[in-house]
Amino acid sequence: MFDVIIAGCGPTGAMLAAELRLHDVRVLVLEKETEPVSFVRIVGLHIRSLELMAMRGLLERILPHGRRRPAGGFFAAIPKPAPEGLDSAYAYLLGIPQPVIVHLLEEHAVQLGAQVRRGRAVAGFEQDDEGVTVELDDGERLRSRYLVGCDGGRSTVRKLLGVGFPGEPSRTETLMGEMEVGVPQEEIAAKVAEVSELHRPFWLRPFGEGAYSVVVPAGEVSDRAEPPTLENFKQQLRAIAGTDFGVHSPRWLSRFGDATRLAERYRVGRVLLAGDAAHIHPPIGGQGLNLGVQDAFNLGWKLAAQIRGWAPETLLDTYQAERHPVAEDVLDNTRAQTELLSPDPGPQAVRRLLTELMDFDEVHRHLIEKITGIGIRYDFGAGPDLLGRRLRDIDVKQGHLYGLLHHGRGLLLDRTERLTVSGWSDRVDHLADPTAALDVPCLLLRPDGHVAWIGHDQQDLNDHLSRWFGKPTN
Question: What span, in angstroms and rounded, lies between the C-alpha atoms of 399 and 433?
Fold first, then answer.
């Protein structure tokens, strides 16, 4: 009997498994692929995801494997530098090979005690009041208290659950791959600068050891299950740029579309959805992996609380209430960015206008905070603007705030030195620090780093401790 079975060991599934293991939840992760993917696609960790990694003590492990880039030029690839003074100690993008980040997160989950079985996939399930019976593709049946589908955009769990996935199918597709080229870099740079003004996305970028990252619009929408060929790349490069740049010796080739869909529900009984199983969208802005990892951080402690028996009655429902609107916003901003990449006169006129508007700091900052996830504010009711937002990694007397969040517990940051978490000390830590770099007297942080309460009154604090962390133990 497992507490949670997770379908899919991508970044979302691995991160969720690790979060659950922080609370001694018995976790099994099923991954249908027998081996990790071999192609080296670069993904970007945005500011909010970097903050979450720092909260769990993972960032120092991850940083040596990535490359830092300035946090700018994200929205529709409009080349604007990041605004000054972004509210984070991690105000950069970390480009990192996808197989590497998946391996590091899976390794982290396994070190915490999660089980991972490769070459196994969910073929069916039945749920009742006590749990979920999961049938694997080899006929084995397993029992778990909960099942979470982190099995991608074509999620088997979502389909078996019967949850609608409304949205728009792909209208355009893009070819992406890594390969070698047969012409000088200077010639490539000149041609790319010329062509990319009319066709987006389009680029050929050096990628080390003689390889180039190549992105070019596809000629038509096709079955995404069918991988492209090198000849497909050559045809499209010749059609758009007038030359195929002598591309050869591909390392990997893939395609992606601009399908945009959002699950109608993130939870049905004891079965939940996270990551691409719950939402898909064009990769523009690099938000997909980040959105899924942040789903896992939001869900992990809540599902663990439900299993450990101290969750308030509605806590698990807040997963959808908080994350569904975030995904809606990401889908909308990727729809907008996709339109701005169109070569048609209307979208290009809007693009030029937005490029001008982004010279205003408030506009530019708003878009950067949206893309990087640091502008998210959950609706916790009336209160100061900080309520419901994440708190940056401030200085405290024990060093840095995020260093106190490695174990996935709540935290009371108390500048008055008069408050207590007595009754909740098994779930919430207490730091009395009058020197903390805060503009408020005290605040309560959830395990995901969002501010759940601001104030100085003990009874008011107790009410909010009960709201988020259940009944006191005494």
Answer: 11
